[in-house]
Amino acid sequence: MVKEAFPNAIVKKVTIKFNDNEYKAIICICNFNNNSHYDHARKLFHKEELEYYSSLKYEKRQKSYVMGRYCAKRAISEYLEDENVESITIGKGVFNQPIIFGPQNQNLQISISHSGDFGGAIAYHERFVMGLDIEIIDEDNRETLENEITIEEKEILASLPYDYNRGLTLFWTAKEALSKALKTGLMTPFSIFEISKIQVEEDYAICDFKFFAQYKIRSFKMGQYMCSIAYPKNIEFNVDSKDLSKLFNI
Question: Model-level pTM?
Fold first, then answer.
């Protein structure tokens, strides 16, 4: 793989601790800041992925597809310690969730996100349930995001030491990350993912849910983006948000 020709990327191993055992997950964040990045990224695609890409009519949809699949393949490659990921296909499940098909799957799951010029993915073993979402902090999204928070959540939002748009985007990404972990996506009303508590730390925030107490969210700011990762409450999960944020300062 000639990495100089591909999008700028940060690929990090995350250690998961559960029942006195250690497992791993791999997070990949990529920056597609010119058109050549999309061309080179497609070199890692399986022929079925290339066929699907060719069927997409709109450039925006083509770019988001490339960003998501490329980040996913980089994360899977790191997890498997194998750069030959062209044989792996990332297809769709019944709810359009990404599914890994390939000879070396090893019971892997993948969660994908993209916003603006950035894509992200997290690869993890299926014994865990995880989801990732990235969203740009944008004033133009305010009305849409405000429609997805409850009265109780507005009180939590007002108490956060963040500016209003950052707080709104945190709520949105937290809910979308959980919806991805549960494989429901945007088909479920976001009110069911109501956040009951947010604990603010130095570099990140931890969210709890009113109706899904078995899950937590770790949210952190990366440049002008928010990133949220959903994970089971009963595991120890840490991610170096400062390290991941380096890509957003290039």
Answer: 0.93
